[in-house]
Amino acid sequence: MQKKHLYCVVFLWLILASSSILYVLNYDFTPNNIPKIALKSSPYQLYVFLHPYYPCSKATLHELKELLNRIKKNTQSIVKTKIIFFKPGQDIKNWEKSTLWENVHQLDDVEVIVDWNGWLSKHYQATTSGETMLFNKEGRRMFDGGITISRGHEGDNPGKEYIYRLVAHKKTNRINSPVFGCPLFGKTKQ
To answer: Are 175 and 143 in contact (CB under 8 A)?
Structure first.
């Protein structure tokens, strides 16, 4: 009788272990559902999520400026760029208007959006300041990642190159790169 119980326990354990392994494998190899609500008015939409008070955001802004200049100079592509500034849900007047905010407004052809309580960041699953997403005209996400080489550092980097290659219609196999930045939903005071 005890032998039957032992077999039942081992059998149940094997089922539980197999189910757990299958669950983890399914999770690891299932892509996220990517929202498709990017505007369809131009061939490409570039969204850059920034926190106005993190120094790493400054490096992202520098790399973005270089990328947009390179695209404008070397391609026929139109890239509609939106910089989305996180703002906490507290009603703090002009909280987002930092030095970085002023620098962004010096860029040409860039729309600045205040992301009240991080609603857009949450919608697009952006969690890090500097996260950059490229959408095509159908609203499909073509790239998601960072455009700096490391946290707060400027210089050539894979993310910026991938975006350029996608917009310039050059072959690239990568569609993402690491995001080196601070959490968007962290610091809430100046």
So the answer is: yes
- Quote the pLDDT of residue 103: 82
Q: Please spell the DSSP secondary structure of 121-147, one letter per residue.
A: HHHTT--BTT-EEEEETT--EEEEE--
Q: Give the strand order in the sheet containing 79-87.
A: 110-116, 79-87, 44-50, 132-136, 141-145, 176-177
Helix axes 158-167, 55-74, angle to 10 degrees: 30
Domain residue ranges in the chain: 1-30, 44-177
Q: What is the CA radius of gyration of the chain?
A: 22
State pLDDT tens for residues 74-86.
888 888 999 998 8
Q: What is the pLDDT of residues 21-41, one digit of tens each?
A: 766 555 444 444 444 444 444
Cα–Cα distance measured from residue 87 to residue 155, given in angstroms and rounded to the nearest whole number: 28
CA pair distance 60, 33, nearest whole angstrom:
26
Q: Check if CATH label 3.40.30.10 holds for domain 44-177.
A: yes
Q: List beta partners, residue 79.
A: 44
- Specify the amino acid at residue 79: V
Cβ within 8 Å of residue 142, ≥6 positions away:
134, 135, 136, 166, 175
pLDDT digits (tens, 9 = 90+) for 109-155: 899 998 888 899 999 999 888 899 999 888 889 899 888 876 655 66
